[in-house]
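[Q] Does anyone have a clean structure-token version of this?
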Amino acid sequence: MPAHHFNTHCPDWAEALLNGFSQIFLQRNPLCGLLCLLAILFTAPSLLGGALLGGVAGLLTAQRRGYAKADRQAGLYSYNGVLIGLLLSLHFSWSALLAPLILASGGLSAMLTEQWLKRTREQRFLPAYTAPFVLLGWLLLSFAAPSEAAPAPILELSTLNLVAGVFKGLGQVVFLDAPLAGILIASGLLLADQRAAGWALLGSAVGLLCALWLHDAPAALLGQHGYNPALAALALSQQRQQSWLPLLGIGLAILLTPLFAAAGLAPLTAPFILACWLLRIGIRPLRRTHDERAPCQTPENHPRLR
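[A] Here you go.
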């Protein structure tokens, strides 16, 4: 079913929430969001409640505070809340305090996103991406009890496991390490933007190969080195005039990831954000030169609001 047909049968609140799931992967497509939600439901159902709570909290906060309806419908106030809900559900046991914590954190992420959007539009500030999630995630994880990491399963270095590892790299964006999750997410990306899907899979594959080259096969085959390069490729593939930019983003995200571990911080999606920010700062002079050479060029129509 095409996305515009799906939208006509989908209530506004449901479309906004599903768009929030798809915005994690920088898409505005409720069908993509539905497949991301199903990936969580089928492979880690215990995390779905937190994801929904966080997304709804962001959406309701935006509605109560009168944020622009177009931005609410695009899912811009939900995606950070979804990620926070997933993170807290993963690291904290369910209790009477966890649900209010997810709701409060999801609401706060929407408020941070609104302030960031204002600065982006008024002062050409750098895009937020998932920065509200990362900042709140670091703060909340500092209160989590330290836990011993479960031993990584020993996977044979086979063609099947390599292919599965590429898809797991997409799933790890939402803390899922099952190949089915990555396949569902990749299917959603294909529905939303085939070019973006290709770049995301390439980013995950390059991250996996680099990890194998560094002799970290267990983490590589679980997709843990693939999700930041995949996100960087997704974000920078929107710059269609600089087709080389996603490749730089992939490489930079891979190089930056060990720095966060060295600083004692969970990488989360910070390497992807920092890689994109650095490259956006770097290409600003090129954009000015291009604008000066083509003063009458019609501004490009960007389909996404992030």
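[Q] Thanks! Anything notable?
[A] Residues 159-293 form a domain with the Ammonium transporter fold fold (CATH 1.10.3430.10).
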